[in-house]
Write a structure and sequence with these properties.
mainly alpha; 7 helices
Length: about 180
């Protein structure tokens, strides 16, 4: 079926007496809409990931504010700024990685449930092959969404980790 445009072109070149068409040309607008929907859904998913990333930023900033005394003690003992930055970067990385992995597992589980069981009842004849919604897991899309989520999580941990590493050790210990 994917070769229909090329085959119809070859058949059209054989004779000028006939008009040759194919299913891809006859339904071109539907496929263009589906491509736009796919791009739109990817953007919506990315925005959801960005909102989750703001939650990671806020929780890490709150953690830095709560742990200023401990950070000051570590810095007074000789831990360098890069060491403090690594601690908070790793913590944000763990939070983001767990959220990404959990999201992928839940999403794939929901797809499997829809493929296996009659979760959503639709009238027969709407989709070929019965009364189930056809589910196609595109691993390129799953991988790109996972990489986008992981990248956003890595980027949002940089600010709180840098803020924690620049903390002056004298200020929190002065008021103790």
């Amino acid at each position: 079926p994917e070769n229909a445009p090329e085959i119809s072109k070859e058949l059209g070149e054989l004779s000028d007496d006939y008009i040759v068409g194919n299913w891809a040309d006859e339904n071109k607008s539907i496929f263009q809409v589906m491509k736009l929907e796919k791009i739109g859904l990817f953007l919506i998913l990315s925005l959801i990931i960005v909102v989750a990333a703001f939650n990671i930023i806020s929780s890490l900033i709150m953690l830095v504010l709560e742990k200023t005394r401990e950070i000051a003690i570590l810095k007074a003992l000789g831990v360098k700024d890069s060491g403090v930055r690594k601690i908070f970067f790793f913590q944000g990385l763990v939070i983001g990685s767990l959220g990404t992995i959990f999201g992928v597992i839940v999403g794939l589980t929901i797809c499997w449930l829809i493929m296996t069981f009659d979760v959503i009842d639709i009238p027969p004849g709407v989709y070929p092959g019965g009364n189930r919604i056809p589910v196609l897991i595109d691993w390129i899309d799953v991988t790109s969404a996972t990489i986008a989520s992981f990248t956003i999580c890595v980027l949002v941990t940089l600010y709180p980790a840098t803020k924690a590493s620049r903390l002056n050790p004298v200020d929190p210990l002065r008021y103790e």
